[in-house]
Amino acid sequence: MGNSSGLLFKVTTFGESHGPALGVVIDGCPSGLPLDLEALQADLARRRPGQSALTTQRREADQVEVLSGLFEGLTTGTSLCLLIRNQDARSRDYSQVSELYRPGHGDVTYALRYGVRDYRGGGRASARETAARVAAGAVARQWLSARYGVEVVAWVDEVAGQRASLQSSSPSREEVEASAVRCPAPSDSERFEQMILEAKKAGDTLGGVVAVRASGVPGGWGSPVFDKLEADLAKACMSLPACKGFEVGSGFAGTLLKGSEHNDPMRAAERAQMSHPLTPAGAQRAEQVTNNAGGLLAGISTGAPLLCRCAFKPVSTHFLQQDTVDHTATEQSFNNRGRHDPCVLPRAVPLVEAAVLLTLADHALRTEALWGGALGRSSGEAR
Question: Dmax over Cα atoms in the chain, in whole Å?
């Protein structure tokens, strides 16, 4: 239970932080997609540990293995299974907390829910699980790009309350990847990196915000009222480890505006956005002057870029002394050991992208199913 997401582009992840492997099964991936494994591997490399001084120094190659659903380079339409083996788990680092409940972690809640927990690296609750989501998201990225021209780019927008000053509202992936912290504003990126390194030196951790922009999404995706596109985006992002908040468009800042200020004007030049929801994006789609709605109205995409922000708490595993209890409710003091991220944000960028990509792929197929049925009925096809 709780390991699957999506209706038509359905992903089921499996595995634990210190198990032999983890992976994902994708049901509903359209057939005939030329799957670029090098591009998939590049997405995984952006998430993998040990990539810089800003991340955990656990060394994992995260080399993906395709077990099924691919033949002669093309997806077959059957279950696509991707496997990633764990190679550098150090379970001994967690021996001291085998009987303790670490503050800020899922130790106590997993014990309450299941009556047993895997204390090694957090088990299933570990961010290690997200490697499987990124692999699935990479597949969704390739299909959405080929079919609709959708592009999803996320970046670190804020660290410890300090927001970046971006020169462009639509930074490129190359600009994001130019720095280890994955902030496309060079001066802010250097400052953020120093903040994270200082926190690491002090044995502490930092949180912040990742922003994401999805361009090329046609208008008409989303299914009110309980399957609104932003509701499913929120669920996908909020299911990421350490994510504590989600907003679309103006978000909470929009509450400071009046209605007359918040509505996005509609002009004749923007009618080009009002195309069929199955029409791939093209140059004819003009952007709105403002986009407080974040590309969504009444739970349905407008054709304007989707804009979202995700708040991530400071990493729970810091190295300062903490007070807790053990499984007998006896009070204890302890210090964490092992290899951990001082800030989740640089590696959360590909996670947020994957969450958005998986949600969009699922809603694209839902829309295709809806319009395919409607078009078939209108042409006299049998039901």
Answer: 72
Q: What is the pLDDT of residue 273?
A: 52
Cα(155)–Cα(176) distance, integer angstroms: 6
The pLDDT tens digits of the residues spanning 146-171 come to 999 999 999 999 999 999 999 888 99
Mean pLDDT of 183-200: 95
CB 77 within 8 A of CB 50: no
Task: Find all residues with CB under 8 Å of 282, minimum gap 6, and list them.
Answer: 149
Peptide bond into 134 cis (omega under 30): no
At 43, give phi and psi (nearest 5°): -65, -40
Give residue 9's identity as a one-letter amino acid code.
F
Domain around 149: 4-378
The C-alpha atoms of residue 286 and residue 153 are separated, in whole angstroms, by: 19
What backbone torsions phi and psi does residue 10 show, to the nearest 5 degrees?
-100, 125
Q: How many CB atoms lie within 10 A of CB 358?
A: 27
CATH number of domain containing 246: 3.60.150.10
Is 148 part of a structural domain of the chain?
Answer: yes
CA distances from 248 to 252, 290, 305, 310, 351 (A): 9, 14, 11, 9, 17
Q: What is the pLDDT of residues 224-243, one digit of tens each?
A: 999 999 999 999 999 999 99
Is residue 317 within 8 Å of residue 205, measured between CB atoms? yes
Q: Does the pLDDT of residue 383 top 70, yes or no?
A: no
Q: Which residues contact 82 (CB under 8 A, 6 or more apart)?
A: 23, 24, 26, 64, 65, 66, 67, 132, 135, 136, 139
CA distance 166 to 156: 11
* pTM of model > 0.85: yes
Domain-located, residue 383: no
Number of domains composing the chain: 1
Percent with pLDDT over 70 in the chain: 89
Which of 7, 31, 46 lies closest to 364 in space, CA to CA? 7
Number of H helices, E strands in the chain: 8, 16
One-letter amino acid identity for 84?
I
Mean pLDDT of 281-301: 75
pLDDT at 7 over 90: yes
Residue 52 placed within a domain: yes
Answer whether residue 346 is part of any domain: yes
